[in-house]
Amino acid sequence: MTTIGTVSTDLNGSHRHASLHELLTAGLAGVSEMLVTLMDWHYRARERRQLLSLSDQALLDFGASRAEADNEGGKPFWRS
Fold first, then answer.
1. What is each CA distance from 72 to 11, 18, 32, 64, 65, in whole angstroms?
2. Residue 63 region by backbone torsions, left for phi larger than 0, else alpha for psi between -120 and 50, else beta
3. Could you give the CA distance from residue 18 to residue 56 in angstroms, rounded to a whole number?
4. What's the pLDDT tens digit per position in 12-32?
5. Which of 25, 41, 29, 35 minimizes the C-alpha distance to 76?
6. What gap in Å lies between CA 17 and CA 6, rounded to an integer?
7. What angle do CA 5, 8, 11 make, to 5 degrees?
8. By the 8 A CB rule, do 73 and 52 touch?
9. Is position 20 within any domain?
10. 20-57 burial, b for 16+ CB within 10 Å, e for fewer?
């Protein structure tokens, strides 16, 4: 069965409208994916702010340079 919009076609070629349950399930899946993306962006932005706030010595403690921190910290939140 293939679904296009709200109308599905089964192997016999007959059409049926998607049920309310199917529409809600698809809608909630989309909202769930969007929330996960927003949470990832929020986490990434926070991590980058924290990275930029570290001292040079703290960066050296885990093997990073100020230039590397500035490069990573300067990226927009939507870039990985």
1. 51, 45, 28, 11, 11
2. left
3. 58
4. 666 678 899 999 999 999 999
5. 41
6. 6
7. 145
8. yes
9. yes
10. eeeeeeeeeeeeeeeeeeeeeeeebeeebeebeebeee
Q: Name the domain count of the chain.
A: 1
Look up residue 18 and give its amino acid. Answer: A
Span 47-73, pLDDT tens digits = 999 999 999 999 999 999 999 999 999
* DSSP 8-state class, residue 1: -
d(CA 38, CA 32): 10
Domain-embedded: residue 45 = yes
Residue numbers of the domain that contains 47: 2-73
